[in-house]
Structure formats: C-alpha cells, structure tokens
Amino acid sequence: MTVDAATRTDLDLDGLLEFVKRNRGFDFTGYKRSSLQRRIGKRMEQVGCAGHGDYQDFLEVHPDEFAELFNTILINVTSFFRDPPLWEHLRDEILPAVVARRAPDAPIRIWCAGCASGEEPYTIAILLSALLGDAAYTARVKIYATDVDDDALATARAATYTAKQVEAVPAEGLDRCFERSPSGYVFRQDLRRTVIFGRNDLVQDAPISRIDVLFCRNTLMYFNAETQARILRRFHFGLDPAGVLVLGKSEMLISHADLFSPTDLKRRVFRKTARAAHDEPLDFAASPPLEGGSGEQPASLRDSAFDAGPVAQLILDARGTVVSVNQAARSMFSLDGGSVGRPLQDLELSYRPIELRSHLDRLRLDGHPVQLRAVPWNIRDGDVRVLDVQLTPLRNGDHADGTSVSYVDVTHAQSLQDELERSKHDLEQAYEELQSTVEELETTNEELQSTNEELETTNEELQSTNEELETMNEELQSTNEELETINDELRTRSQDFDQSNAFLEAILASMGVALAVLDAGQMVQVWNRHAEELWGIRAGEAVDQHFLGLDIGLPVQELRTGVRSALAGERTELVVVANDRRGRALRCRVTALPLTVGSDEVTGVIVLMEPALA
Description:
By secondary structure, the chain is of the alpha+beta class. The protein is built from 19 helices and 20 strands.
C-alpha cells in the first residue's frame, strides 16, 4: 500500500513529536497541528533541514537545538496591562468582589497560567497591592505564575524590565512598585516575594487548587479542542466554588457551558459553574469501648452471635481448614458437625455452588475481599437459587489468620429484578408505539436541530479562524521584534565600519608617499590621494584594475618581478625612470611590501611610490 506525501509528512511529524516527548518531556501532541507545522517548519528552514526526519537527526546531533525549538514553538508575547479594558474591569469589579467575599485575614490565591516572561503576574500584583495596601497585600496574597518555558521563567524571576517594556505601566504604579537600576526597572523585592514562579505543564501536571482568580490568556488557543477540554476540566477543579476564569480575547468557551458561565463575554471573564458532586467512599472509625468497660466479651456470647447470624457463613483458617460453620450455613448446605476440622477441598461446598479454591488463592495473593454476585445454584430437586458470595480475609494485625465465606440468598431479589426487566420490556414496546405517533414532530425537531448545529459549526469555525489569526499575529509580532534586533545590530556594525573606513582614509591621506594596495590577484584595492596627484588617475579609475595594466607614467611592467616577490613574502625595492602626471621625467623609488592580515599568510602587496633623490 502506497502512502501519499501528506500522510508521510504527518507520520514524520508524529515521530518527531514522540522523539521530543521521550527525550525532553515536552508533549506537544495536544497543540494545534497547523501551528506546530508552521513553527517547526521555521526552525527547519533556519537550520537547513528538508524534512521532519532530517530535523530529528539534527536534534540528536545538536542537543542545544532543543532550546531554540522550544523558544520558537512557545511564543512568549506579553506585556504589562495588555488589553487595557480588561484590566480596568478587573480593577473596578472583579478584584474588589474577590476581596469583599473573603474574611479580612483570609488568603487570596491567584493563578496566572502561561505567564511567559512575567509581565502579567506583576500587573496583577500592581493592582492588588494598590487595592489592599502593601502590608495586607504581602500578608494575604499569593500569585502562582506558571509556564513550561524555563528560559521565560528565568526572565520572570529576575523581574527586571527595560524602559520600553514598562511604558504601559501607569506612573503611580511605576513609582510605587518598581525601583530604578542601571539595567532598567526592577520590581520591588518585598512585593516580588508574593509572586511564586514554577514550571507547570497544563496538559500533564496537576492544577493548583483553591484559586480565586485564574488567568490563562491567549494560551488555550494553541491547543486542539480535545486538549482544551481536558485543561478546562482541570481549571474547574482548581478554582474555588466562586472562582473566576479570565481568558484571552480569542477564547470564548462556547462548548463548555457545563464548566463555566460567562459574566462578561466581551472581556472573556467566566465564573465556575457548580457540578453534581460524585459519590465518594466515606471512612468510618471504629468506636472506642465505653468508659469503664474492659473491651472483652465472653467467647460463648460471640459464638452464639455467629451461630445465630441470618447469613450463611463459614470460617476457614490459614491452611484452608473449616474452623466454624453457623446454623444458616448448616441448614442451607446440609452440613453436619463433622464438617468442622476438615479441609475445605474435601467438602462438596468447595465446588458447589461455585468453585471456591481459585478465588481463595487470589485472595491470599492480593489480600483484597472477593465478591461474587448472582451465582446460580441448582438444588437437587430442580429448584434454582441465586446467591451472592463474599470472601473476606480475617486479619490479626498485618497477618491473615483466615477467611470468612458468606452466602446471601438473593433469589427473591433476582426474581424481582427479572420481573422488572420484563416490565421494562413491555414499557419499551409501549414507548415504541408512542414513538411512531410523534415521528412527524421529531422530524421537524431534527431539521431545526440540524440548522442549529450548522450555525454552531460556523461559529466554531469563525472562532478557530480568529484563534489562528491571533496566533499568526503574535508570531508576526515576535518576528518583527527579532528583525528590529537584527536591524539595530546591523546599524551598529555599519557605524563601526564607517568609523573604521574614515580612520583608514585619514591615515592614507596623511601619508607623504603615493600608495597602492593590491590583492593576491594584483588587483588594486586602495589608491591614495598622493597616488592620484603623482600619476594623474583617480581612485575610482584605478580600484579593481590590474596594477600591471594601469596606463600611467610608471613603467609597471618593470615591477612585475618585485610584485611577485612581495606576494612570496619578500620586500623588494627598485628605482625606475617614470613620467609624472604633467609628463615630467623623474626617478621613482618603488617599494613592494608583503601584506599580511592576522596571520603569516600573505594576502596582498603594499606598493609605495615616491620620487628618488638624484
């Protein structure tokens, strides 16, 4: 069977994601496929890999590439007071309501999931410290800021930001919560202690509990629908019953009304919805003996109570020997007094009404009670009875001393169950007849439902498109920041080059002799002002021309041997007869020096030309 190119690409991508998960613990399988392909493709293009398999090989050889890959996939685009209308709503409505419903000394717990480089949790700290005052804030507030990007968390822990990064912080908040430093603005240390940074993978790690307000803005949109649902269930578990969830402007929770209900859909603020609690087992402690009692009971009283019990029961010791059988068991299975003291395997009871020995072996291995329900028992007269069989280990401390086997006759209950099933069957038939009567109404209802589903699908597609656009916008913003950084570097290097070039030109202009610099191919690279004045050709005419081909008053062909010797590393000097730019004859001293740059390798020739004294 052939595999088309698209399928092969998907398989290679799955293999790459599994490789990353196995080697670095990052599980990206829940991220949106299109976003993953785009971001991984960017790194592949930068390192020159044609396919996902090649890129996996590259990662194996270059483990440092993992950090670059994670930084590319985990887009850390954030800022202080991002989306100002939301922060105004939090300052005026949400946070005052959280403080009001808490006791004056009760803790306030905030979780910022996907905190990136820390601007968002520090924004929350600025608002809460202004609302509560510094003393109450430091005593009551805990802000948990989590992310999967260790580099971003390291930046956030440093709490140091440039003047450009804090432009959106109000002047009052900047003066109150930040301190100036040579590297920029540093968040105040006493307020910083309330912000707890840590690594948390929303897909795999347990949520933080008892949270009053949970911020997860522009993070869910990177995950597919199934992973979003799993994360939202964890958020629901972690929030306080009156907790608030704040999402990004592209995240709406249309399909999760059972978990969260909107309080301000425009600003993407949601409140936790109460769900029916699941039944949980309760632990009961044994009652202590009454005050003044000894705690011991006469053995005869215990034996009488066991023998008179309404449930058929027998006791086996650790070797499988029958120790005791109560009256109900003797009557039910026609046992006599000789059964006590015999191995269970010698009695018919060991295999009728059910094979007990295999279940006893299992109980000895794992130590857990075994319950067998609805066991049929064919009595010899043709009557059929139904039993529930319970095997319970009897312990003395950590040691199992024996086993209790009890038989509960549920024949009557089973017959009632069968009767109930027959009644249900009759009721189902009646419902089928009723169903045929309302088919026309159901058809109309289905058509309306279909129309509604189409509208919901269209809405979901629009939301998905909006999330994609938001993702691409953040990617473009990240790329733009990278380009601005590169542009700044190029501008700095250009200035350095211009300065170096001006410095070199000044040196060459200040020399009192005509000078030409040749490369290894004897092409002119530098022609100074004195050379122009001596021979009458400008630098623009001489540069990039072969020196021995210049039409000047200097007999350049006589210099061929000297230039070659200089390329071989020897200094040569000779005097030749030449004509200057005005046609006047003169004796010219020509010195050829080898040009070396940074090593002993000769890369060109420096030719010095000056009139020789007669």
